[in-house]
């Protein structure tokens, strides 16, 4: 499951993530991290389900880190899309690609909801919900 | 032997048109022509094929339309005018205006601009027209507010001073922040590469010797018929960066091939569809029309360097760019286009259909586009203040092993906020601010290297101050050390000191 972590000045300097990985033995991929001296945001993919996932979530909460589930995905207006590709290479996780006719293929599984493509599209046809 | 440009050795324009009228002309798109050359050789293809069609569909900022509104009663000599809140140029007669693609809405900014107005006009949408005037004896009216659509207009003429760049450079970004440019979104640390142009389908690259394109050449423009008016602005043919000025009747165009666009934090523009038929009149034209993506080269430039002469990161071909991956320093980097190859190939196919069905004839241009034009930069003649003019040269520098307390004392005594840290050779290794020091003292840290910032934003002595101020704003910092080529500290520039200098200059 993809999660957005929001750190506060109190916990941003602490190794919350690595402690949780050590304690639960759950593999966690860091998709994006923006850590500043007194705040931080991270997008992670927790490779666990059921009880294990719940345990991870509760540990983050205990550490005072805010956790949001990423369920937002994109909607591309394929009629107004001109198949240029301006949204393709800026995507940091290669969630958008082009087929042999240059048409856009969006891989919802990979998307981390960073909105870069929403701005990168010159035709304004990508929206996020 | 010296051959004159445009020699009709294989076939003449009249012979081609005769075949088009009879339905016998052999017309291929650039992609098809390349395949024919690959399978049967250039000589055969040049002998058999009469016309090669090309196409490109990309952002072309130097585009716009002349519009004549007709006269209201009582009449008005419009002095300022807006279309959907986008200002149009009014330095023309009473009811003529020019709406440029990059003009931006005064109420919606980047979201909507002249390019969008042109698209909406072509789509037949109603457009709000607002104009102001000072009133004259012959034109008494002082303002007007109404709605127009393209059918109401006497003329709506697309006239683009620079379109169809032969090829263009590609872009990447070496800095540590995301850049939003006219080359699209560029991720930090060479995170991606963007490029534009149509590669092997590019109209001007298919006649790179300018043997057939010229003033009066009939072309596909925005889904309708247009004409080449001459070389475009910044035409630079000897470097394979030729451009065209084109015009066409907006009323006959199609919004699939004219699209308003926004480059985030850059501005608005217009995507224009251009297709040019290349008559295969001699072998040189045939050889040029046969060029493939792997024979068309361009440079990847570093848009992280805010200078006219951006450094080249790599020379590459359109074939590599189109593969979706470019190798820079042994790293594979995602590349993607800003122009649409899909629509470009649609344009080449449409033009082929028009010619094949006999509704589009070719013509000999009145004059060929020049194949040489000096390309000049704009030199700033007024002297702009540089960092070296205002920086503080007597600076206190710390050493990584210095004791924090003594340094704090020096800062207080000198009344400065920034302390660059240099190694024993005088090379910059970090910076601390009085704020960092206060924090360090509170946390009982002892040595400078425990508290300093080691990734320092710097300036060079010969940089224009405006650029450095912009950099400080971007990084939200109030001072930068000035370093020489080998990273030795030679001064410091702080906003505090700058504003005092500027105020003094103001007062004098
Ligand atoms: S929001 Fe867009 S750019 Fe960001 S990960 Fe998803 S697809 Fe890629
Ligand atoms: S940038 Fe926009 S128009 Fe271009 S391919 Fe992506 S979604 Fe389509």
List the helices and strands and how they pair.
The complex is a heterodimer of chains A (129) and B (508).
Chain A: E1 2-7, H1 16-24, E2 28-36, E3 39-46, H2 50-62, E4 66-69, E5 74-76, E6 96-98, E7 104-106, H3 116-120, E8 126-128
Antiparallel strand pairs in A: 1-3, 1-4, 2-3, 5-8, 6-7
Chain B: H1 13-22, E1 27-29, H2 30-40, H3 42-48, E2 51-53, E3 56-59, E4 64-68, E5 80-83, E6 86-88, E7 96-100, E8 104-105, E9 109-113, H4 114-122, E10 127-132, E11 143-148, E12 155-163, E13 170-172, E14 179-181, E15 184-186, E16 193-195, E17 214-215, E18 218-221, E19 224-231, E20 244-249, E21 258-263, E22 267-275, E23 277-279, H5 283-289, E24 297-302, E25 312-317, H6 318-322, E26 325-328, E27 331-337, H7 341-356, E28 367-368, H8 387-390, H9 404-414, E29 418-422, E30 428-433, H10 434-442, E31 459-460, H11 465-475, E32 479-483, E33 489-494, H12 495-507
The structure holds iron/sulfur cluster (2 copies).
Binned, the helix content of chain A reads: 10-25%
Mean pLDDT of chain A: 87
Bound molecules: iron/sulfur cluster
Structural class of chain B: alpha+beta
Number of domains of chain A: 2
Low-pLDDT stretches of chain B are none
Q: Tell me the quaternary state.
A: heterodimer
Order of helices and strands of chain A: EHEEHEEEEHE
CATH topology term of the largest domain in chain A: Alpha-Beta Plaits
Mean pLDDT score of chain B, rounded? 93
Tally of helical segments of chain A:
3
Q: Specify the overall morphology of chain A.
A: elongated
Percent strand of chain B equals 25-35%
| Terminal residue distance of chain A | 18 Å
Let me know the largest β-sheet of chain A: 4 strands, antiparallel
Question: How many beta-strand segments of chain A?
Answer: 8
Structural class of chain A: alpha+beta
Secondary structure: helix percent of chain B: 10-25%
Q: Major sheet of chain B: size, sense and barrel closure?
A: 9 strands, antiparallel
Q: Identify the CATH class of the largest domain in chain A.
A: Alpha Beta
Q: Would you identify the CATH architecture of the largest domain in chain A? A: 2-Layer Sandwich
């Amino acid at each position: 499951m993809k999660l957005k972590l929001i750190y506060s000045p109190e916990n941003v300097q602490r190794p919350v993530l690595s402690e949780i990985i050590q304690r639960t033995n759950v593999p966690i991929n860091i998709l994006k991290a923006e850590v500043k001296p007194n705040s931080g945001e991270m997008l992670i993919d927790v490779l666990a389900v059921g009880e294990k996932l719940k345990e991870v979530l509760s540990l983050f909460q205990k550490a005072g880190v805010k956790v949001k589930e990423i369920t937002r995905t994109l909607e591309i207006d394929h009629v107004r899309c001109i198949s240029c590709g301006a949204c393709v290479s800026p995507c940091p996780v290669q969630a958008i690609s082009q087929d042999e006719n240059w048409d856009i293929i969006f891989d919802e599984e990979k998307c981390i909801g960073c909105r870069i493509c929403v701005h990168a599209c010159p035709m304004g046809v990508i929206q996020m919900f | 032997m010296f051959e004159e440009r445009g020699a009709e050795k294989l076939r003449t324009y009249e012979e081609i048109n005769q075949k088009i009228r009879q339905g016998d002309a052999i017309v291929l798109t650039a992609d098809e022509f390349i395949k024919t050359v690959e399978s049967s050789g250039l000589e055969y293809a040049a002998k058999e094929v009469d016309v090669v069609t090309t196409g490109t569909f990309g952002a072309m900022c130097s585009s716009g339309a002349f519009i004549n509104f007709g006269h209201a009663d009582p009449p008005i000599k419009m002095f300022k005018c807006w279309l959907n809140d986008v200002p149009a140029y009014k330095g023309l007669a009473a009811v003529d205006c020019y709406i440029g693609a990059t003009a931006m809405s005064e109420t919606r900014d980047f979201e909507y601009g002249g390019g969008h107005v042109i698209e909406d006009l072509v789509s037949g949408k109603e457009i709000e027209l607002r104009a102001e005037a000072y009133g004259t004896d012959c034109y008494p009216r002082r303002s007007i507010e109404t709605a127009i659509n393209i059918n109401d207009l006497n003329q709506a003429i697309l006239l683009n001073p620079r379109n169809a760049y032969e090829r263009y450079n590609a872009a990447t970004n070496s800095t540590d922040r995301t850049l939003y440019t006219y080359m699209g979104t560029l991720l930090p640390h060479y995170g991606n590469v963007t490029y534009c142009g149509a590669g092997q389908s590019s109209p001007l690259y298919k006649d790179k010797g300018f043997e057939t394109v010229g003033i009066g050449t009939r072309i596909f423009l925005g889904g309708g018929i247009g004409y080449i008016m001459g070389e475009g602005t910044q035409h630079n043919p000897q470097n394979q960066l030729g451009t065209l000025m084109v015009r066409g009747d907006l009323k006959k165009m199609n919004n699939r091939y004219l699209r308003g666009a926004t480059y985030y934090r850059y501005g608005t523009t217009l995507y224009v569809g251009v297709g040019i038929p290349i008559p295969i009149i001699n072998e040189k034209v045939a050889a040029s029309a046969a060029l493939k993506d792997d024979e068309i080269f361009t440079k990847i430039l570093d848009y992280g360097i805010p200078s006219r002469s951006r450094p080249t990161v790599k020379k590459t071909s359109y074939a590599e760019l189109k593969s979706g991956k470019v190798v820079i320093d042994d790293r594979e980097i995602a590349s993607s286009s800003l122009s649409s190859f899909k629509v470009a190939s649609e344009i080449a196919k449409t033009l082929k259909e028009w010619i094949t069905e006999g509704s589009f004839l070719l013509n000999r241009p009145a004059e060929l586009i020049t194949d040489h034009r000096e390309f000049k930069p704009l030199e700033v003649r007024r002297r702009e203040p540089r960092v070296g003019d205002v920086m503080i040269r007597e600076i206190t520098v710390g050493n990584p092993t210095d004791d924090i307390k003594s340094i704090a004392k020096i800062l207080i005594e000198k009344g400065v906020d920034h302390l660059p840290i240099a190694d024993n050779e005088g090379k910059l290794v970090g910076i601390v601010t009085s704020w960092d020091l206060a924090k360090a003292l509170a946390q009982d840290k002892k040595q400078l290297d425990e508290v300093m910032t080691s990734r320092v934003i710097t300036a060079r002595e010969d940089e224009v101050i405006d650029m450095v101020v912009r950099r400080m704003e971007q990084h939200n910092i109030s001072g930068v050390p000035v370093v020489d080529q080998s990273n030795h500290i030679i001064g410091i520039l702080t906003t505090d000191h700058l504003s005092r200098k500027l105020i003094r200059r103001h007062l004098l």
